[in-house]
Amino acid sequence: MLKRTAHTAIAVTLATGTLAALTVTAGAGTATAGTGTTDGTGPSVVRTDKGSVRGTVTDTVRTFEGIPYAAPPTGERRWAPTAPAKKWRGIKDATEPRSACPQTGLTPPAGPKSDTEDCLFVNVTTPRAEPTKPRPVMVYLHGGDHTDGEGAMHGAQRLAAQGDVIVVTVNYRLGALGYLAHPGLEKGSRRGESGNYGFLDQQAALRWVRHNASAFGGNPDNVTLFGQSAGSHSACAHLVAPSSAGLFDRVISQSGPCASTAGKTSRAAALRQGEKTAADIENMPGVKNWRKAPVEDLIHPFGQGPGYSPVYGGKLLPLAPEEAFATGRFNKVPVLQGINHDEMRAMVYGMELAKKQTTGDPDATIDAADYRDRLDEEFGKEKAATVAARYPVSAHDDTPALALAAALTDAQFAKPSLDTGRALAGHVPTYSYEFAEKETPWYADPMYPKPGFPAGAGHLFELPYLFEIDDYEKLDPAQRDLSDAMIRVWTDFARTGKADWKPTTPAEPHTQSLASGPGGIRPVDFAEDHRYDFWKSLS
Q1: DSSP alpha helices (H): ranges in 303-439?
Q2: Which pLDDT band holds residue 80 (cuts at 50, 70, 90)?
Q3: Cα 173 to chain center, whole Å?
Q4: Residue 2 pLDDT class (50, 70, 90 cuts)
Q5: Which residues partner with 166 through β-bridges?
């Protein structure tokens, strides 16, 4: 798979200081089983249920890019449930990625700026060798705060070839076009579609996989849904969506704990925000005008920054994950879930960049005053004083940025991750991990300088170990061994629903650390390391 850029999601994180990604029914016809066609065109051509596609064959993999899985969400289909793709005649070229869904992009060349709504495509990567039996299928949902990104961001050649799996990456509607809720869009909605169009796209892609996996040599009865950051929050939503039942058989959640307050919005809050946003748009009042307007006129007015996410409430997503797990009302499949040890260092670096820009001082850093101000903002002054005492700057190399990142990581990622594992473990096999590599290469866009403090295992930094990211070549031999080990963990879990360490239980979190070097892959006391009891006492 030709990745378009590896920098979009990290650029969102750094530039903004945030952590930034109707159901299709079966069409007539059945996908042809096997790894190629029987008409002499060879393994580069596969016949799907809508028509044939020609991909690219390399020494190790076959890739098929830009395959339509749904109709373009244009005109009256804008802010409407996902519709089936039409059949086509002949052989469709699938050797290059197609358009990303509409998004503003960032300062070039960081992001895939797009104003093309014809964007509902999947990319498929398979090992080149013919399978001896149907392969597991892994469906990846990209991150990017549900406002940026695309399926082609990360190539899946190593994951597919080394793991002997089929990898499908997905484009889905983003930002306001994917997640805007508004009373004007509620009319005719029976299941709570308003605010969840991107989620419905994901369901349509999963149905496409069920119908077409066998055509690419995959097993439609062994599908793993996995995602990172916003993609992880989307996977959590599918875990609890009644209409997603039967569309996947396992879930891998990376850096987006289901129990987190991030990545979800109540219907009431989403509708209030939608009305407020619409009231600010004076030149395009009413849904009819919104559907007729050029897409570029909608992205900026409706906003493209953080704040869009799956909307809970209604038949589509009746329960938030915490309630669904507590009551056992969710799609019960094995789950591998975890975070990175230093998640929030990326966000804190975003704060540092913003300070450099606003002050005009290229040497500006996060200082003690910034540290306390952010704690006050996050926790309120009374609790902030307690947090500052527990996370003194003196205990973090006298670096306020590191102290702040540690506190925010533990509060916003580690505690929700442990809560998620314990809640799931009472119902399904659950395995927990922590990516803890300390010296992962800096792979943000070159326009962003390295931070003035160690980046550690920050948000997104596990991705070069699983996907084709520009800086994979910078990994040292021990880190490449870690990459191989992580690919084994991810793909073995996809194959069997198990990891090679003890599962999490409600009483014991059994977390496996993933780092390079001797003893790097080992069990750790996750709760103690991330001060779980302290944060639980503040809840």
Answers
A1: 321-327, 345-359, 368-379, 381-390, 400-409, 415-425
A2: very high
A3: 13
A4: very low
A5: 137
Cβ neighbours of residue 283 closer than 8 Å, sequence gap 6 or more: none
Contacts of 394 (CB under 8 A, 6+ apart): none
Q: Can you tell me whether residue 516 is helix, strand or coil?
A: coil
To which H or E segment does residue 207 belong?
helix 197-212
Q: Which position has the token pair 């439609």?
A: 220
Q: What pLDDT, on a 0 to 100 scale, did the predictor assign at position 154?
A: 85
Q: How far is CA 92 from CA 48, 53, 56, 65, in A?
A: 11, 5, 12, 10
CA 357, 438, 341, 161: dihedral to nearest 10 degrees? 100
For residues 372 and 384, give the distance between their C-alpha atoms in angstroms, rounded to a whole number. Answer: 7
Block residue for tokens 């975003």: 350
The answer to whether residues 216 and 126 touch, using CB atoms and an 8 Å cutoff, is yes
Q: Which two tokens stand for residue 286?
A: 């009413």
* Span of 32-36, 142-146, 235-239, 412-416 with lowest mean pLDDT: 32-36
Residue 103 DSSP symbol: B
Q: Is 99 designated active site?
A: no
Q: Is the pLDDT of residue 537 over 90?
A: yes
pTM above 0.85? Answer: yes
49: its two tokens: 């249920």
Catalytic residue among 229, 255, 432, 513: 229
Residue 213 has a pLDDT of 98
Mean pLDDT, range 354-382, rounded to an integer: 95
